Amino acid sequence: MSKYFRYENKEFVEYDHLPCSYIKPTKECLVLSIMEDSSRPKVELIGLFIKKQNIENVYLDFISTESYIDVNTYKRLEVELSGFNLKILTVNILNCEFKSHIFFPVHANQLYEVFCGNNFLESNKFIQLNVLRSKKRLKKYLFLNHHIRTERFKIFESLYNNNNLDDGLVSFNWTLDNDKFDSRHYDVSNEDMEYILKSEAYKILPIELDGDNNANYVFKNDIKHIANPVYFQPQHTNVTHFHNTYFEIITEGFSSRTPVHPYADRSNILHYSEKIYKPLMFMNPFSFWGPENTLEQFSKHLGFSFECPLYHCNNMGYDLDAFNTKVNEFASLSYSDLHGIYYDNFEEFEHNRNTLIRYLENIQL
């Protein structure tokens, strides 16, 4: 009989159902969702607990907390649980190969569950390819921001300084005065805060696009308020934003000194939240600031194609000024040029959507 546990409040708590509904094992197993100390899991304690359960197939769920796990921890877990059929589920791509690791992009699974039924894929393609082909889109680009990070603000500021802000669908709904903002958590130094406060671009914040800037974070399906943007709830994505723009500018939440945690080796671990999967699912190209060499790694590990010139990301040794120059170059293109580029490369966007769906459908647990 399968068993389901969460490690929380320093205890192993048993559930009568899977704590993470997106994990769907096909065999008798033990699923342990690590909900705390997840970036520095207590390997020996976990090993001792699992060995007492006497179940061969073991799944360690690190996806619920989107945690980094350093390379040494993978090695220790594999040694500690070497007598089991072990699978470690994370939202991270690993350049180092571990037999036990499964790249499990839970946010992409949320998108899949909501948007891959009821003929949505066919309808979305019809809108993007047929309905909008003869129409100028409302704006050139989409740029959704929630809380303040230094790089995120400087990209926003560069668009403001180059008079490109009005051509985008843009949100930025936190200021430094927000009571939830913690400069340590978001890796914003005192020098950064001083710079931001002096910027003319900061004076126009907050900018609201969807929902309520002051809404509390909630995860229920019957939410009464939608925070802006609904970055932690892919299933509530406003798809029309992707119909109204030609490309998206994305700043990964862990873009500041990627990754922010000093114990994670960024040459081995690439971390992603929901942000990159939305434009892939809804068939829009994007400029991406986050883990370095993301486009290269997504092509290598997953089979995506990024030949369209509107695809762009920061690579090793690539500074923010260069990224801002490229983003403003895209934002300065005429609507006619962007329209032509988009439809010249539409087959690639469809390929990438299908590649994402195929990967999700082929995850074997």
How would you characterize the overall build of this protein?
The chain has 365 residues and is an alpha/beta fold. Helix content is 33%, strand content 16%. It contains twelve helices and 13 strands. The strands form three sheets. Strands 2-1-3-4-5-7 form a six-stranded mixed sheet, with helices on one face. It has a five-stranded parallel sheet with strand order 9-8-10-12-13, with helices on one face. The longest helix is centred in the C-terminal third of the chain and has 16 residues. The protein is globular, with a radius of gyration of 21 Å. The two termini are 16 Å apart. About 4% of the residues have low confidence.
Please outline what is shown here.
By secondary structure, this protein is of the alpha/beta class. The protein contains 12 helices and 13 strands.
User: So what's the overall shape?
Assistant: globular
> Portion of residues in helices?
25-40%
Order of helices and strands: EEEHEHEEEHHEHEHHEEHEHEHHH
Rg, alpha carbons: 21 Å
Largest β sheet strand count, sense and barrel closure: 6 strands, mixed
Q: Determine the mean pLDDT.
A: 86
Strand order of the largest sheet: 2-1-3-4-5-7
**Count of helix runs:** 12
What percent strand?
A: 15-25%
Based on helices, strands and strand pairing, what is the structural class? alpha/beta
Number of strands: 13
| First-residue to last-residue Cα separation | 16 Å
